[in-house]
Structures are given as C-alpha cells and as structure tokens.
Amino acid sequence: MAKFHTTVNEVAPEPTQEKDGWRRMDYRILLGRHNVGSTEGSLYRSVFPPGAAHKKHLHTKSDELVYVIRGRGAHGQGDDEWEVGPGSCYYIPKNVPHWLRNLDPVEPVELVGVYLGAGSLEETGYVFLGEVQPHEMKVK
User: Fold this and answer.
1) More exposed terminus of the chain, fewer Cβ within 10 Å: N or C?
2) Fold of 8-136
C-alpha cells in the first residue's frame, strides 16, 4: 500500500548535479511516484542557500506551480525576470524556459512546488538549457 504521509526529514535529497543546472540546492520530492504511486502530480521542496541557483531549464511534459516560503530570489521565465519573496507564487507552463537564483548573501530561499501530471522529475521531461546570461538577469 502506498504511503500518503511523510515529512521533509524522511525524504532524501535528489541527487542533483551542477552539470545538469542545479547549483548547491537541497531539492526533495516529498510526494510522488516513489511513495504515493501517483503520476497525477508530485510535491517538492527546495532550499537555495546563498549563492545557489537553478539554472535555465524547462519541462516538456509538465506544468509547474511554485510558492515561496522564505527568502529573496529572482525568478526568470521566458524573457522576463522578477523578484520573489515570502508569499510569492507563480505558474510555469510546460516548454517555457525558467530559472531561480538566491539574491540574499545570508538567508536561504525556500519554496514548495507541484509538477502537474508528473510523479517524478524524470516524468516532467526536464531539459537543462544552460547558464542564465547577464542580459537576462534583470533583478539585482
């Protein structure tokens, strides 16, 4: 039988690597195919310490919903970038390039998100696109 309850401390961080666009993040899929068995969606939690970033990427098979719990970051989507902080939420349609970087030299950014229609990161159709270019960094 699937487990329908967990805590963040019971879930190991995903083995993300900088070569795939993940810089110093703690990223954990809390609920998804691995413990609920569902492919309808998954819930994740990410912490971005100072200097951390999720470089430009997209998902070919899944939309994404994000809610920022704490911290100060810059979220880029398509041709725009804006500041996010506690209470910010945003929607990312599939196939839209996006990124997030921590702007604070001391405090981490913490967020939770949902992949719609994907029970794991692999099922989202994750594609790393590369570094965010200086002209794309509109928030200082």
Assistant:
1) N
2) Jelly Rolls (2.60.120)
